Amino acid sequence: MSLDLSAVLPADYTRGSFIGRAQSPEGPCAIMLREGRIYDLTQEVATVSGAIQRKHFSGGEEIGTVDGGLPGGWSLLTPIDLQCVKACGVTFALSAIERVIEERARGDAKAAARLRDQLEERVGSGIRSVVPGSDEAAQLKEALIDEGMWSQYLEVAIGPDAEVFSKSPVLSTVGHGAKIGVRSDSDWNNPEPEVVLAVDSEGEIVGAALGNDVNLRDFEGRSALLLSKAKDNTASCAIGPFIRLFDDGFTLDDVRSATVELTIDGPEGYRLEGRNDMSQISRDPADLVTQTLSEHHYPDGFVLFCGTLFAPTQDRDTPGGGFTHKMGDVVRIASDKIGVLENTVTTSRDAPPWEMGIAAFMKNLANRGLIEKV
Asked: What are the Fumarylacetoacetase-like C-terminal domain coordinates in residue numbering (predicted)?
């Protein structure tokens, strides 16, 4: 059964422009949605990163309508290809507190429950009231150091430098409808519903999608040096359904005020609801992009996870045990002006293997006579 595209797009999709990717029988294609119609850009520009770099959002071969869905034999992919995948962490006060809890509990969910109220009372109000990198933030840092409450996570929460890390290799992300993976040896983990910014090589933010930056709280809680092992695993990064491009009807201000809703439906009937309110972010999204660029250059552009307010503390099975995923959980992330991203949880070990890396992608385009269109 073909995907009902209208069900994963925002209600005003006919007034917006969306770029993404689809798998055709011949290989990946760059596609655009404009005025409710689907266009294949591939014969003109073969990659989403190339289309963004050249601002090639018009033209293309019409291949259907949103209501009619993708052509037979086609399926939706993640909307990015050659872009680097970056992420910022600890960008909300609550996430900072939760990271301190993980660190002090050494990844133990039950120990974390005992620390939560204490840290929220002593640290939470202070973090919420200061601007990161300000004189007030520096004064709060000194006070917390004196109280023995300082942490590396508080440094990136209120210090001058944001946490920026590489989330996932080029071409490794999964899209709407795909299985999303957590490590099979993780006992404490959760989804992270986020807004993902699409940025060109000059640093211009051109649009936004939704993302799930799966987090292993036990791994990172044991040591921040395990961040890469906690974050970068097969199928552990989902982006979709499309990148909505900025225009008169959708701007960075819409990102700044976006609400990202999360629901998790477990195979045993469990349900968890949460939200990520971007208006509560501690660092402006544009500043996060600037800090990601820093002294770097991304010739194919990049996408940037902005972080999340969501940090589940609801017990799932045992009192004090907190939340962790079960195989078969359906994770739905939605935002009114961006769309819906839904994935089913499996282990990274059992997820479909990642097979189309850069070499395979280039060979596919070359065999289709498209290598000059990248």
From this structure: 204-345
Structural domain for 48, as ranges: 5-79+359-373
Number of domains composing the chain? 3
- Of 252, 254, 247, 262, the C-alpha closest to 215 is 262
Reading phi first (left if > 0) and then psi (alpha if -120 to 50, else beta), residue 60 is in: left
Q: Which residues pair with 210 in a beta bridge?
A: 195, 240
Residue 263 has pLDDT above 70, yes or no: yes
Q: β-strands 193-199, 189-190: how paired?
A: unpaired
Report how far apart, in Å, the C-alpha atoms of 133 and of each of 156, 161, 194 are: 9, 7, 23
The 10 Å Cβ neighbour count of residue 36 is 16
**Mean pLDDT over residues 263-274, rounded?**
95
Token pair in block for residue 194 = 């986020």
Q: Are 260 and 275 in contact (CB under 8 A)?
A: yes
* 142 Rama sector, left if φ>0, alpha if ψ -120 to 50, beta otherwise: alpha
DSSP 7: G
Measured over the CA atoms of residue 220, residue 225, residue 227 and residue 228, the dihedral's sign is negative
Sequence-separated (6 or more) residues with CB below 8 Å from residue 290: 203
pLDDT digits (tens, 9 = 90+) for 36-61: 999 999 999 999 999 999 999 999 99
- Pair (175, 319) in one structural domain: yes
Query: In one letter, which amino acid is 25?
Result: P
- Whether 253 and 197 map to the same domain: the answer is yes
Count how many residues are written for the chain.
374
Residues 221 and 272 in one domain: yes
